[in-house]
Every structure is written in C-alpha cells, then in structure tokens.
Design brief:
eight-stranded mixed sheet, TonB-dependent receptor
Length: about 900
C-alpha cells in the first residue's frame, strides 16, 4: 500500500515557514569554516559508577554510553524510547501502550529483568521523585516521560550493583541521563509524523538556546509535544473480538447452582443493531439469548494513550571566582494523558450479589446493559484522564577547596516533586433506580426488591441521561524527595605507580508520598465503588561514603568503595553498609581486563510499607482453574479475560526488611586503534530477601496448577497461593465457584538471580571517495534467570518458564554513513523468542529496522526523514485471545514516519 503521512495544518505551516528561512539562509554567501585542529588529550571526566574523575571512559565496571546524536539518528522518539530499546533492558514492563495498568501515564524500564524498582534513574547524577502511583500497585519507580531529548548530552548505563556509590535501588544498574552544560545561539526543531496504517500521529516542537555572558553560562529548552491515541478499531486484526460476543443487553433469571436462564428481549437487538458500528446481534447461548456485539472491547480500548506534554528546562553556571562556580538548574514537565480500556456498563450489582427480586415475576433476576458510544456522544466521553506535573530543582556550588591544589568539592541541594491527578469515569449510585425504578424494600434474605419496566432495558440512553447517571472520581497523588549533599575528590597519597585518589560523599535527605482517593468513594456516591483509604508516608536517609582509586602497578589499578546508608521510617530504622571493589589490568595500551564485585541493597518501597488496606478490582481476570477444569483452551475459554475482573485486597507491612544484593563481573576491552574497539563482559546479580507481591495473573496460574495437580498442593507456594484466592461456594445462588477476592501483600521471602554476557563492537571506516562509515553492534544474552518464592520451594528457571515475558537476548546493529551534507543511519534490532499469550509455546524471534536520513541544507539548517519499522511488521499472537498481539512486548502501530527540521539562530 502507498505510504501516507497526515500532518496537521499548523505543523505544515511551521515547516513551510522554517523551510523558507532555511532556504534563504542557504542562498546567502557563507564564510568557509576553519579547519578543525586535532583533538587534545581528553580531560578527566566523571563516568557513572565512580565519583573520581578519570581520563578513560572504561573502568572496572562496564558502562554503555548513548549520545544525544545517536538518539536522533537511530529513530528514537524520546529518552524512554531510547532506553527501552537498549539491550540491557531485558525486562517486561507496562506503560503507555499496555492498556489496563495502574500507571498508563508513566514509562519505565527494567534492567536485567529485575524489575523497575531495582534500576536507579538519575538526572545529572541526582535522584528524581518517584512516580506517585506504584507500578502494578506495588513498587515505586521513576517515570522517564519528562526529560527533553533536545538537551541530552549522553545517557550512561552502568551494569551491576552500585549501592556503594549511590545507595539504595542500584541493584540491577544505574541509568544516568546527563544534560548539556551550555550552548550558543538558539535551535528550533519541528518534528511531525504518523503511521502508514493510520492513527498514533504525533508532533513535537523544541526550542533550545543559551549563551555565555562573561562569567555566566546559560542553557534552556522548551519542548511541546502531542501524541494521538491509537484505537484497537484502527487495526483490522483486533477490530473485532472472536469467540463469545460481549453482552450489551440481557435479562437473566438467577437459579442456584446454575448460570440461570436468559429471558428473550424480543425486538431489542434489532433496535440496537446500529450501535457499536452496526455490530449488535442476537446471540443464542445455551441458556437463552441476549443482545451482544464482538466490537465492545475493541471500541473501548486505546492501545496507545493520548498525550499532551510541555517540558521546560533551564540551567545557569556563574564563575564567582577562579576557584568557585555557582550553579542552578530546574526541570518542569506537565503531561495530560488519556486512555480508555472499558466502557460504561451496568449490572444490577449494587446489591452486592448482582441480582434483585423482581416483584412483577416473583423471581431473582440480573439485568445487564452496556452503553454504546452512539448513545453517550462519542467514545472519548468515557476516557480516563491524568494530569501530571513534575518539577526538579538543583542549587549548589563547586570548585577547588581553598588551600589545596587538587581537591575539588560540590555542595548541592536537590529537590523534586511529582504530582498526578487522575479522573476516572464511574456510574453514579442512582443508576440502579434509572433502570429498575424505585427500590421497594428487601426480602427476608436482604435482597432488594424492584418492580422494573422491561421496556427500560430495551430503550436507548440519551446523552443527557448518560450525564445524569455517570461522573468522575478524582484522586490526588504526590511524591517528593529532597537531598543535601557534599562531595569531594582529590589526591590522597603517592604510590610507586602513581597518585592514589579519593572521593567522599555525605548526604541527608527526606522523601515522602501520598495517595488521596476521592472521598465520595466511601460515601456511596458512586455505584458499587470499592472503598479506598488514604495512603501516605515519609522516610529520612543519612549516608556517608568514600571511594579510593589505587594505581597498584603501571599496568594494574584497583578501586575500593564503601558506603553506609541509614533509613528511618514507620517508627524504626534500617541501616546498611555496602562495598565494592574493582581491578583494571592493562598488559598493553590497547588491551584492558577488568573485574568487579559489589554488594547492594534496596530499602523497602514506601508503598509496601505504608499501604493502607486497599480494595479494588482488576480490569480483567482469567480464571485458569475454571478453564482447566472445564477442559477449555485459554483462547476459547468462557472464563478468560473477563471484564471487569476479580476484586482484590492489598495491605502494606511495616516490618519489611531491606533487600540484599550482590553482583560481580569480569570482562575485556580491546581497542587496537581509535577506529575499532570490542568489549565482552560477563555479569552476575543476586538478590536475597526480595520484597514482592505476586501479580494476580501469576497467583491464578499457580492456583490452577496447584488445584489441577501440576504443582505439589502441599508445597509452600501452593499453601500460600490457595490462601490468597477466595471463591464463592460451588452451590451459591449467583456467581457459583467464581473468584471472590485475591489477597496480595508484600513479604521478604523471595530470591532471584540473573547472569549473562554483553558484547559491544564499534568500527569506524574512513574512505576518500565514499565518506565515513560507523558500524556499531550491541548484544546481551541472559544465561540464567532463577527465582524462588519461598524457602523450601523448588527454584524456578525463568528462562524456561512460559509465565516470563522477559527477553532472553537482544541485538542492536547500526551503521551510519556520512558523506558530504548527508548522514544516513540504519538500525536493526533483533528480539529473542518470548512465551505466547496462552502460555503454550514461544513466539519466534523478530527483527525490526529503523532508517533515518539527515540532509544539511547549510551551516544552520538540517532536514531529516525518519522511518521506524520500515517493513511494517506487526507481531501477531492469537494464543491468548484478543487483542491478538503480545501487549507490552511489541507494538501494533506498524510503520511510523517523521519529518524533522532543525534551524540554528545566532553564532
């Protein structure tokens, strides 16, 4: 099919104006650029993983560096997109494209598959406030959505534990996003594009600038972006849901021990025939008929959220004296996000039993009604919305300590706040009376009595009526952190092979969070809304640490670091000392052998500690036990992906202890010339006393395996799992045998370990006639990944588990060809096999290709064309049922393309 990209008129106008300016500038006579001088010996720099400046980027631990230029040329949309595609990021995470999650307005990563809370995210070496809502309702994490890519100098990814340098959280690794320090002039960047299959269009405008004014150096960046939602209806393979269509109107007589009998609704299905895109039909079930549509789920499901964001960054450095520099920077990010994962549905369920006593028929009945977009005035009227505001500020001074020749210091105050307001559409408490009429009392069993008009169930709802029976519940969530730190580094003493250097760090900080739900949830204002309490807490932290670099021999260097952190929370304290050591052996200038060992820890997540007893329901649930007992495959099971899903009960625990980790690695780097280098590293990470809540899906899978004999029902895991799942009695009048609640609470019980290898190759080829070719390859393979839920359980090999969606290996290959005014980049990413949605086998590996072409119009302007997923691949997976693709692992967007224009003003 022909490739078409639809650009908004405003974006086209901006491109035209800027393009005209660029062409005019190109026509002017330009002075020839001065010949570039050979680069001087690189100055000492601080690389993530050490606070001691060094001349070499390579150290005892491997660090992957991704430059801001590479982010653009390799087709990454933003900082998160760049990080999630790195080979070290092997863990499965839920984000903006996942649908039903606790945090669809946030994005995160999981290095080595150890979870987003085990990866420490830093901005210029400083911590950011957590996203205020816990990932999967359990763990705290850092959102990566608010960092403007235009001012990113580079991103450094440290592999392995680094608590001795950075404290808690740095178990799987550290990601340090380093921003540019200064710039001259102004750059305006406009980027717009979309997908060839339709939907998911996006636009971005960036203005970056700065200047040097004697002793003052400034930089600022403003980024405005918007992303259109992608609806399931915009992809033909998931626009209709196969199997049993969704019930949109039914009347069922409830009978004990059975699923009841549906009462024929007469001509209702014909009257509703044009709803949900004309897909409503009468569905004949075993126990009667009802009105149904196979498009309800796809209609009310956005596979990518809608987003509008405004990010502003500013920094200033003032040289107070030759020895002292004052600095300040701030970051403000505002995001508005929307998605839709379920539509307005009503079942006579405010009674708590999903049925009532019909005075007209003298029978127990359950009525159901799903309201269509055609009735309420558009599908977006039932969107869930988030308004997020993230701020970070840093103030300080740095320079040389008076009276010394080599000692440097940095005193810094860092504060960060993240606020999130969510607005969730809900049915109001009056919805029962809207469909059933006034309540006439209750019977002897406490079941409410109504005398409803059957015609009400068969009549359309008007937009005004919809407004009278629905509203929004509003929650207010906040997280914050602030830290005061003093760091020093300098020469310690002279050794035969060189000067021993030392760096020290002292920190004191405090952080907190609060989740404030809508008070009306507990006041009966909404229909069948589960009660929710305020959750809030704080903790303080004190830390002292030191790191020493020891030139033991002209070819051997050692590094030692130690740090003590002490946390105070919930009326108690928890302190941990961590250490690490590293060796660098250089038998020849072009060859480096390295080894490192580190201990690390993670203080218990505040959400785990302070979580008040929370109740709610999952958006959808698969009852694996009932599917297995009925002999039904998951993709065709009547109990799979039921929406809404089971209720849950969640509690926190103030007795949790810190997790303990240790890691070690060995590697080699060979760099025979400035045009070629290759590195190979082995890593191994272990975590003890892992704090965890099993996911509801994992609990239900284990429950099925325990009840159906696949696991030893007397094992510790089965004993715990069966105690977590409460079911209605098999002979209950309604919902017989169904899941009543799933209890999830955190425990210090688990162990997890992971190991693997990383390989990196870079080669630069310069030719006289054909330009320069830069080849780069990064590969990571997980060799082992084992977990144990309870002491005494059999260890689970996650690499062989069909419940583990992490990547087994990832490969990135890129080549950049620069010739004259053209720069062309090809990136090919290969993803390993992963289990299919049904848990019955594996999906084959897949390779995706991105290309970009950058043309330099003149010294001020560039024009770029970027195409991602060049061959328009969409990974399909029918094994788990709708939506028929591996959600969270691959995207259903298909081919995407952008046009990008950049113009520089000033010097």
């Amino acid at each position: 099919m022909p490739i078409q990209f639809k650009l908004p008129p405003l974006t086209i106008a901006v491109l035209a104006i800027l393009g005209g300016s660029a062409w005019q500038a190109h026509a002017q006579t330009q002075a020839p650029a001065a010949d570039k001088q050979p680069a001087a010996t690189p100055p000492a720099v601080v690389v993530t993983g050490s606070r001691i400046p060094r001349a070499s980027l390579e150290g005892p631990s491997s660090v992957t560096i991704l430059t801001g230029d590479e982010i653009t040329k390799q087709g990454y949309k933003n900082v998160f997109d760049a990080l999630t595609n790195q080979v070290q990021n092997s863990g499965f995470t839920q984000g903006e494209d996942f649908g039903n999650t606790f945090t669809p307005s946030a994005n995160t990563i999981s290095l080595r598959g150890l979870g987003p809370n085990h990866t420490l995210i830093l901005l210029n070496g400083r911590r950011l406030a957590d996203f205020p809502v816990a990932y999967e309702g359990t763990v705290n994490f850092t959102n990566l959505a608010n960092i403007p890519s235009s001012i990113v100098d580079r991103i450094e990814i440290l592999n392995g534990g680094a608590s001795a340098i950075y404290g808690s959280d740095a178990i799987a690794g550290v990601v340090n996003v380093i921003l540019k320090k200064q710039t001259e002039g102004f750059d305006i960047n406009v980027k717009a594009g979309g997908t060839t299959r339709g939907g998911a269009g996006n636009q971005r405008v960036q203005l970056t600038g700065g200047g040097n004014f004697d002793k003052l150096h400034t930089l600022f960046s403003v980024e405005l972006s918007q992303r259109d939602p992608l609806s399931s209806l915009q992809r033909d393979f998931m626009a209709t849901r196969s199997g049993t269509p969704t019930n949109i109107a039914s009347r069922r007589v409830v009978q004990a021990g059975t699923s009841g009998t549906y009462v024929d609704l007469g001509d209702t299905c014909n009257q509703f025939g044009d709803l949900f895109g004309g897909s409503v039909v009468k569905y004949q079930a075993k126990n009667g008929s009802y009105c149904a549509s196979p498009k309800v789920g796809p209609t009310y499901w956005t596979t990518q959220t809608k987003n509008r964001s405004q990010n502003v960054f500013g920094s200033a450095n003032y040289e107070l004296s030759p020895e002292t520099t004052l600095f300040a920077d701030f970051l403000i990010g505002k995001n508005s996000t929307e998605n839709n994962t379920r539509g307005p549905t009503w079942t006579s369920s405010s009674t708590g039993s999903s049925y009532f006593r019909n005075q007209n028929t003298n029978k127990y009945e359950a009525w159901t009604r799903y309201i269509s977009p055609e009735e309420m005035g558009g599908v977006e009227r039932y969107n869930r919305k988030w308004d997020d505001l993230a701020t970070a500020i840093s103030l300080g001074a740095k320079g040389r300590i008076p009276g010394t020749s080599s000692w440097q210091y940095e005193a810094n105050y860092n504060a960060s706040v993240y606020k999130s307001e969510s607005h969730t559409p809900r049915a109001l408490a009056n919805i029962d009376s809207f469909f059933l009429g006034p309540k006439l009392g209750t019977d002897a069993a406490g079941v409410p009595i109504y005398a409803p008009d059957p015609a009400r169930l068969s009549r359309r709802v008007t937009a005004a009526e919809f407004d009278s029976i629905t509203g929004n519940s509003d929650s207010d969530d906040k997280a914050w952190t602030n830290t005061l730190s003093l760091a020093t580094n300098g020469d310690l003493f002279q050794l035969p092979a060189g000067v021993a250097k030392i760096a020290t760090i002292a920190e004191v900080g405090k952080q907190g969070f609060s989740n404030v739900p809508d008070a009306r949830l507990n006041d009966g204002y909404f229909n069948v809304a589960t009660k929710s309490d305020i959750t809030a807490g704080t903790r303080t932290r004190y830390a002292l640490g030191a790191e020493v670099n020891l030139p033991l021999h002209e070819k051997l260097t050692g590094t030692l670091a130690g740090r003590y952190d002490r946390y105070s929370f919930a009326g108690r304290s928890d302190g941990k000392f961590t250490y690490n050591g590293g060796l660098e052996l250089r038998p020849a200038p072009e060859l480096l052998f390295r080894a490192n060992y580190a201990t690390s820890f993670r203080a218990p997540d505040m959400n785990y500690i302070y979580k008040a007893r929370g109740t709610g329901y999952y958006s959808s649930t698969t009852d694996y036990y009932r599917c297995g007992a009925a002999g039904q495959a998951i993709e065709d099971c009547d109990y799979a992906n039921k929406s809404p899903g089971a209720d849950y009960v969640q509690n926190g625990s103030k007795d949790l202890q810190s997790e303990k980790g240790k890691s070690f690695g060995v590697g080699a780097v060979w760099s025979p010339s400035s045009n070629f280098d290759v590195s190979v590293d082995y890593w191994n990470i272990k975590i003890d006393d892992l704090v965890t809540n099993l996911s509801a899906d994992r609990i239900l899978r284990d429950e099925a395996d325990c009840r159906l004999g696949k696991l030893d029902i007397n094992s510790p895991t089965c004993a715990d799992t069966l105690g977590r799942v409460e079911r209605f009695a098999a002979n209950a009048l309604n919902r017989a045998g169904e899941i009543k609640t799933i209890t999830v609470n955190p425990i210090n019980a688990a162990k997890q370990s992971s190991s693997g290898i990383d390989i990196s190759v870079k080669y630069l080829l310069r030719t006289a006639d054909y330009g320069r070719f830069a080849f780069k390859a990064n590969y990571a393979k997980v060799l082992s990944n084992k977990s144990q839920q309870f002491a005494g359980d059999e260890e689970i090999d996650e690499l062989k588990s069909l419940n583990n969606s992490d990547w087994r290996d990832k490969l990135n290959l890129s080549v950049n060809w620069a010739a004259g005014d053209w720069s062309n980049t090809l990136l090919v990413s290969r993803y390993s096999k992963i289990p299919n949605g049904g848990g019955t086998g594996y999906l084959t590996p897949t390779a995706l290709a991105n290309i970009s072409t950058v043309y330099r119009i003149n010294d001020r302007a560039t024009l770029s064309l970027i195409v991602n997923n060049v061959f328009d691949k969409i990974k399909r997976d029918d094994s788990g049922g709708w939506p028929y693709y591996p959600v969270g692992s691959y995207s259903p967007q298909g081919r995407q393309g952008w046009v990008e224009f950049n113009y520089h003003f000033g010097s």
